[in-house]
């Protein structure tokens, strides 16, 4: 599973025994794989500052998770032709995400533990905000390029009624620079080829004999040229329509065709040039954002543990990785039972949802007797 539960309990003898009991039960029942989650000795500051920081960290946590999911999705979009290799590009410090989380170590160089907690949180928040700003600008530029290219490519696909004809026709297919003559392009259903050959010269006056030529086909129709005098264009179009032949509005413009081809070449070249740098940027900054997110989780555990269990700071954090989705309910029951003594009233309401306690509104979705945080690595779900 790509899910982790990060919990903490007081570090006194009774709770260390409870943690040991939890490890034994979860191991024997194959409920989860548990590892110690090491958190530095931070400077606590005042309890009032911790209360405010708790709220702020909650917001930054949500923002960080949203950001890394967006970055993961951007990797998918950029690697559209190699989606099977996406996961190997979503790493943290060169390691897969599960390994990074289970072997987490606080980065003292980036986030010195001796700094005030508010300063560390501010550094993390600013780092994530800058990554988001850069993500928006880089992906916007790439997506605009991609959209323009897709629009051009769409013009080169589809049937003969809708697609561009500039990559199909050539200068030799047309009578050009004539004061009197013009070459039209006519779409003819395949079953009507014989009818077209028999009738096109008589659809109007002044049609040049033997001037038709098939130059392209799709599954349903063929594209024919026909040359006639300019002054009978309208009459020819009307008669062609009556016979279920469709005249495409197209006039050969060599400069415009050259411009379209050059634009396609330029866009393909630009996308190729942007692809590598953008993917490298996404890989590096996904790693940075993910690392920052797990540091935020560690900060939250510290702050909430101090607020919940009091001073002096003494708690133990544990990372649990549930083995199967079906076992999470049983795992929750084990944890609530083992740590019931931390908050008897809350534990009672959680373990027995039928018990109503006046004045107490608790949900087993958002409150537990112990400090609890959820880490979901299913970034592409």
What would your notes on this structure say?
The chain has 381 residues and is α+β, with helices and mostly antiparallel strands. The protein has nine helices and ten strands. The protein has helices spanning 13-28, 47-78, 97-102, 117-155, 193-199, 233-242, 254-309, 328-338, 344-351; strands at 3-10, 32-36, 91-92, 95-96, 181-189, 213-217, 221-229, 246-248, 315-322, 371-376. The strands form three sheets. Strands 2-9-1-10 form a four-stranded antiparallel beta sheet, with helices on both faces. A four-stranded antiparallel beta sheet has the order 6-7-5-8, with helices on one face. The two termini are 12 Å apart.
How would you summarize this macromolecular structure in one to three sentences?
The chain is an alpha+beta fold and 381 residues long.
Q: Biggest sheet, in brief? A: 4 strands, antiparallel
What's the number of helices?
9
Distance between the termini: 12 Å
Instruction: Report low-confidence residues grouped into runs of 5 or more.
Output: 353-365
Biggest β-sheet: strands ordered side by side in the sheet: 2-9-1-10
Strand content: 5-15%
Structural class: alpha+beta
Assembly type: single chain
Radius of gyration: 34 Å
Q: What overall form do the CA principal axes indicate?
A: elongated
Order of helices and strands: EHEHEEHHEHEEHEHEHHE
Tell me the number of strands: 10
Q: Give the rounded overall mean pLDDT.
A: 89
Summarize the amount of helix as a percent range.
40-55%
């Amino acid at each position: 599973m790509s899910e982790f539960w990060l919990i903490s309990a007081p570090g006194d003898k009774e709770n260390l025994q409870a943690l040991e009991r939890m490890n034994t039960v979860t191991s024997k029942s194959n409920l989860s794989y548990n590892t110690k989650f090491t958190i530095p000795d931070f400077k606590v500051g005042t309890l009032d500052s911790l209360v405010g920081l708790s709220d702020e960290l909650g917001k930054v946590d949500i923002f960080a998770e949203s950001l890394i999911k967006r970055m993961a999705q951007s990797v998918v979009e950029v690697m559209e032709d190699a989606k099977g290799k996406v996961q190997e590009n979503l790493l943290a410090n060169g390691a897969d995400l599960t390994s990074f989380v289970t072997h987490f170590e606080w980065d003292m160089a980036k986030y010195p533990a001796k700094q005030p907690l508010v300063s560390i949180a501010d550094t993390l928040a600013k780092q994530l905000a800058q990554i988001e700003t850069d993500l928006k600008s880089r992906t916007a530029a790439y997506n605009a390029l991609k959209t323009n290219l897709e629009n051009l490519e769409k013009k080169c696909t589809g049937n003969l009624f809708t697609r561009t004809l500039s990559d199909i026709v050539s200068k030799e297919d047309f009578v050009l620079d004539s004061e009197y003559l013009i070459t039209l392009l006519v779409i003819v259903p395949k079953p009507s080829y014989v009818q077209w050959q028999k009738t096109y010269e008589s659809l109007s006056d002044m049609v040049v004999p033997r001037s038709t030529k098939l130059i392209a086909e799709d599954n349903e129709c063929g594209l024919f040229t026909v040359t006639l005098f300019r002054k009978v264009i309208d009459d020819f179009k009307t008669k062609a329509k009556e016979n279920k032949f469709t005249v495409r509005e197209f006039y050969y413009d060599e400069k415009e065709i050259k411009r379209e081809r050059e634009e396609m070449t330029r866009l393909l070249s630009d996308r190729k040039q942007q692809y590598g740098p953008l993917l490298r940027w996404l890989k590096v900054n996904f790693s940075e954002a993910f690392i920052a997110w797990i540091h935020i989780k560690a900060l939250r555990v510290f702050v909430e543990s101090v607020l919940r269990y009091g001073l002096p700071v003494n708690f133990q954090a544990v990372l649990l990785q549930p083995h199967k989705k079906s076992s999470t309910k049983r795992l929750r029951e084990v944890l609530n039972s083992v740590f019931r003594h931390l908050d008897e009233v809350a534990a009672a309401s959680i373990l027995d949802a039928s018990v109503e306690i006046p004045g107490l509104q608790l949900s087993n979705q958002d409150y537990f007797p112990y400090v609890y945080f959820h880490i979901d690595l299913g970034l592409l779900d």
